[in-house]
Write a structure and sequence with these properties.
single chain; two-stranded antiparallel sheet; 6 strands; globular
Length: 303
């Protein structure tokens, strides 16, 4: 590779025209500007030696930079240590699928025989009810709602007192009565009694946050748009150090996980970690002795 020559070159292959070329350094190595081509050139020197021919290889600077940046990005991208082994261990511990989320989670609370728009509405309501509520309580409330008639029209015709009685004792049930009524009215007026099909529209509904929106997109629309992070996913991700630095909220954890976790795992990770958090990695007194990750979990050393 020739050194950088900031002066003009006389290119014999270009009919004697003056062509200005300058070599730039990329990552400490000289890279030539221009399309890939060989050009025989006469380079004026102090001793004015004539006729000396040199072969100068012109590489595309833009292409060189892009290729180097892509390589550097892959090399520098952060990911937690042992995460693949930890994930495999969690899969093994969850293989029986006997946690509450497996039997009573949002994917089990809707009527699969209902028309698609009704099914999607029921998925949305089950997730609205699940906030700050155990799956067992959410499932029982959804069962009562379905017996009552869980459609947009029926809910709009149900008075607040009756609706409250049907969903009690889910967490913050009085607020949820208000949110359900407001959201259902919007669905009736703006979406033809169906639910929105984008995260942006879903989070604009009363009582719907990012976690719910991404889970609705996955379960109701079969479209993985992000990771659904609840208190279990948030807690376990910090315990395993799956976040580069400690996160304070589930939304911060979602952003941190999506930055490095392969996209094909986004749908699975919520189900895996929620059940794992319900059975082994408990909020208080986690069962570290029963956990296959006890020797490679940073938090286990503190138990």
């Amino acid at each position: 590779m020739c050194a950088a020559v900031p002066r003009p070159l006389l290119c014999g292959g270009c009919g004697g025209r003056m062509v200005t070329r300058q070599l730039s350094r990329v990552g400490g190595e000289a890279a030539a500007i221009g399309n890939r081509a060989h050009c025989t050139a006469t380079i004026p020197s102090k001793n004015r030696r004539k006729g000396k021919k040199v072969s100068v290889l012109y590489d595309s600077l833009e292409g060189s930079i892009a290729e180097k940046e892509e390589t550097d990005s892959k090399r520098l991208k952060w990911e937690p240590g042992n995460w693949k082994q930890q994930l495999d261990n969690i899969r093994e511990m969850r293989q029986n699928k006997d946690a509450p989320v497996d039997q009573m989670g949002a994917e089990k609370c809707f009527d699969s025989s209902a028309p698609p728009e009704v099914m999607r509405y029921q998925v949305l309501l089950s997730l609205m009810l699940s906030s700050q509520t155990k799956d067992q309580v959410t499932s029982a409330a959804m069962s009562r709602l379905r017996e009552h008639g869980l459609t947009v029209d029926n809910v709009l015709q149900t008075d607040d007192v009756t609706l409250g009685r049907l969903i009690y004792p889910v967490g913050f049930w009085k607020n949820k009565v208000k949110y359900i009524k407001q959201t259902t009215a919007i669905l009736k007026q703006q979406y033809g009694s169906d639910i929105p099909s984008t995260v942006a529209e879903l989070v604009n509904l009363p009582g719907v946050g990012p976690k719910m929106a991404h889970l609705v997109m996955d379960i109701a629309w079969n479209n993985v748009t992000g990771i659904g992070v609840d208190t279990h996913v948030h807690r376990i991700s910090n315990r395993l150090k799956w976040v580069k630095k400690e996160t304070k909220t589930p939304e911060e954890t979602r952003v941190a996980l999506e930055d490095w976790l392969p996209r094909d795992l986004w749908s699975e990770i919520n189900w895996l970690l929620v059940g794992f958090g319900q059975q082994i990695c408990l909020p208080v007194n986690p069962r570290c002795k029963e956990c296959l990750n006890r020797d490679i979990c940073p938090a286990a050393k503190r138990c």
